[in-house]
Amino acid sequence: MPESRPLTVVCLASYFKGNEFLQQLRLRGCRVVLVIKEKLRDEAWAHDSLDEILIVPNSATADRFIETVSDFARHHRVDRIVALEEYDVMHAAMIREHLRIPGMGTTTARLFRDKLAMRVKAFDAGIRVPDFVHVLNYDEIRMYMESVPGPWVLKPRADVSAVGIQKLHESELVWRAIDSLDARPLLTERSTHYLLEKFIPGEVFHVDSLVENSEVVFAGVNRYWRPPMDVAHKGGVFLTTTVERGTEDEQVLLEMNRALLGTLGFVRGATHAEFIKSTDGDFYFLEVAGRVGGAFISEALEAATGVNVWREWANLEIGRGEVPYALPDRRTEYAGVVLALARQEWPDLRAYTEPEIVLRPSKRHHAALIVSSPDYWRVQHLLGEYARRVEQDFLAVLPPMERPQ
Fold this sequence. Notes:
405 residues; alpha+beta; Rossmann fold; Dna Ligase, domain 1; D-amino Acid Aminotransferase, Chain A, domain 1; eight-stranded antiparallel sheet; 33% helix
């Protein structure tokens, strides 16, 4: 028999995140390699859990990532490639295909990076989505705007969250925005890399899942207090909270999420999907990512359920369906996140003393609290109070986020 050796897992990260994933890999005996851009070199990575860090230039293309991992693979057998951040999903898929390593390939990965592709696939499967059109054929765009009343949102197909989104109320403004995009240099993303979608007012929800062998084995349903696009463009305090358990909203979203992930062919890992409940009560799919939710969503999920999605995702990647997976025992409490950009470099939240505070995440120029309780309404009350106080004590407003370079 061949000699037993530890699994080698190569992880890609365009942002500083995923230390718990790296630590769990090491705890399980894996050889752990991290690929990052130069600008992330000095972040507080879990070095004790890393065997090697591979650094690429900030301007690195997909080909550079492929060659960097390929050079490493000349001397080390690579077993897994994992994207810890949404911007790395396609790079990871391309590396898997180049090295012929099992896992999600580029065809499926594109459904989790391309907002047009995921909408087309979901619509064809009967999942409700806002009316949309590819910003490509002028006649189709014109007919779309004549038949679908504004306002509309112009969305880049490959960016994350609210990055690059414009809300437009008149067709003339749409055409001007398209012309502005097409005036860009040829090497940048022009209008064909965008879609136009009907703006639907309502409440935005997110469902965060763990998937094993194409089955959703864990899902947490949460509601944003304000739509992320609103927070990103106008500033303010970000809040999200567990949806009341056993409600119709929770059941509808769990079913939509299961149908969506099955339609998109997601086999294994962590996902973060967003849906909107319109003012008429209908739910619509907005977007989905093959990663753990940001903004301390994973910490809130753990506070409410006891399940750490970063660690469990690592366990899923190690097993790859070859060994049975068992989800840890879970609780059914409630939790919420209060998060804001802060004027202070290291804001002091010691005046916030309620016992329901279970975590005070420390991040430069951010004020953050995570609260948890068995009582749904207690969590809602605390979030409301803390939102008001955090805005007064700490809030800073910066320009909307741009994509990483």
